[in-house]
Design goal:
Elements lengths: L1 H12 L5 H12 L4 H13 L9 H10 L21 H17 L1 E4 L27 E3 L5 E3 L6 E6 L2 E5 L5 E5 L6 E6 L6 E4 L5 E4 L3 E6 L7 E12 L8 E5 L2 E5 L3 E6 L6 E7 L2 E5 L2 E5 L4 E4 L3 E4 L4 H4 L6 E7 L1 H12 L2 E4 L7 E7 L4 H9 L5 E4 L3 E4 L3
Parallel strand pairs: 6-8, 11-12, 21-24
Antiparallel strand pairs: 1-22, 2-3, 2-7, 4-5, 5-6, 7-10, 8-9, 9-11, 10-11, 11-14, 12-13, 13-16, 14-15, 15-18, 16-17, 18-19, 20-22, 23-24
């Protein structure tokens, strides 16, 4: 393992490391048992630059912390830990934080403004891997259940001349034309990979873990209506004669052809609709508003429009990332619970830190939680999926 760590770090400095190797390097950086080896690798890199002054343990430790923590002077980007401009490896080491952060960066913002300490913890006795397969199901009209975790491609079911098929790329799609309005429900449970389905009109929907969408196998009449729970991303096929409506209770999002994300989990404080392309009308009860690209509607008692939204952050879940922006520990754990299928509990004293950054969804639970410990978040785990967050 130490030799592998050295090789990956060497490839990173040479800019010859693959995205998969970057993820592996980050995973090693999070392994508490490799902290000494990582520090030595950094010191060796310093010495190979020909600098007269040796790097101290303190500076190596400080650089290690930069892999996990933001500078207290700038909460939005990483800054070098040294004012030396002659050492290219300092820049490279700062870049490793950025590169690892692009896929997996995790940081905590504390009210004190001080960088978090690296906290030694023991590895989980029973680790939890990220979802390896898709566990989604389709409940068809009449109650029949189709399980989508099979690798078999082709026709999965037939309804009123409509074929439910799995394409070679694993996507679910409908082919044909039904005569009646028949509704099916696609459910993607917690602990399941994101699933993508093409509806009968050519519109596509991606479902996050812990989400579902109810839809007609064929859109009949002058409108297209679906309903969701949880989180979904839509790319709606343009049809000016048939508006496309997504609903969740009193909330309705009406479009003609567009790309947008809807986050409407029951355990979130409010629903959020983020528009990437086109235009949508958002209705909540008797209130309504129009969204333009780059805007987000936050739905609680009313409709609040936020402009200049990072739309890529809104759909990061679809692209294999957790992304946090000043999220509290409950926000973080809600996302982790859906992905790893966890039950999360809290003591009376809930940690108050805020989190900002990205984590790859390819990591094991222990790697993610080790990242949490660098932010002074402590926990206990029982039975493989029950986590209790401890006081600071």
């Amino acid at each position: 393992m130490p030799n592998k760590l050295k090789e990956l770090f060497k490839r990173f400095l040479a800019n010859s490391i693959s995205p998969e190797e970057k993820k592996e390097l980050m995973g090693m950086a999070l392994e508490t048992g490799l902290q000494d080896e990582l520090k030595q690798v950094i010191k060796d890199a310093w010495q190979q630059t020909g600098e007269d002054e040796d790097i101290t343990d303190a500076k190596a430790e400080e650089l290690m912390q930069k892999i996990f923590a933001e500078s207290s002077e700038n909460k939005t980007k990483l800054t070098p830990i040294s004012k030396r401009t002659g050492w290219r490896s300092i820049a490279a080491a700062a870049a490793i934080v950025t590169a690892l952060g692009t896929a997996t960066y995790y940081a905590a913002i504390h009210k004190s403004g001080n960088p978090p300490e690296i906290v030694k913890t023991t590895a989980l006795s029973l680790d939890v891997k990220p979802p390896q397969t898709n566990r989604a199901i389709i409940v068809m009209a009449g109650g029949k259940t189709v399980y989508l975790d099979s690798t078999v491609n082709g026709i999965l079911a037939v309804q009123d001349n409509m074929q439910l098929i799995r394409l070679d790329d694993g996507q679910i799609a409908y082919r044909g034309s039904a005569k009646e309005l028949i509704y099916n429900t696609l459910t993607n449970p917690r602990g399941s990979k994101v699933i993508n389905m093409t509806l009968s009109d050519g519109s596509q929907v991606w479902l996050n873990a812990g989400s579902s969408v109810t839809y007609p196998v064929t859109f009949i009449g002058d409108e297209r209506k679906v309903s969701v729970t949880g989180e979904a991303y839509f790319e709606v096929a343009h049809d000016i004669a048939k508006p496309f409506t997504v609903s969740k209770g009193d909330l309705q999002v009406q479009v003609l052809g567009t790309r947008f994300n809807i986050n409407a989990y029951d355990d979130e404080g409010n629903a959020r609709i983020t528009l990437l392309q086109g235009s949508v009308k958002v209705k909540n009860g008797k209130k309504e508003d129009i969204l333009q690209p780059g805007q987000q509607a936050q739905i609680a008692a009313g409709i609040k429009i936020i402009s200049d939204i990072d739309v890529e952050q809104a759909i990061a879940w679809k692209n294999g990332l957790f992304v946090f922006d000043r999220a509290d520990i409950r926000d973080v754990m809600r996302q982790l619970a859906r992905w790893y299928d966890l039950d999360v509990y809290y003591t009376d004293d809930i940690p108050k830190g805020k989190f900002k950054g990205e984590i790859s969804k390819d990591l094991t639970l222990s790697q993610v939680l080790n990242g949490l410990t660098t932010a002074r978040i402590h926990f206990t785990m029982e039975g493989g999926n029950k986590i209790t967050i401890l006081p600071e």
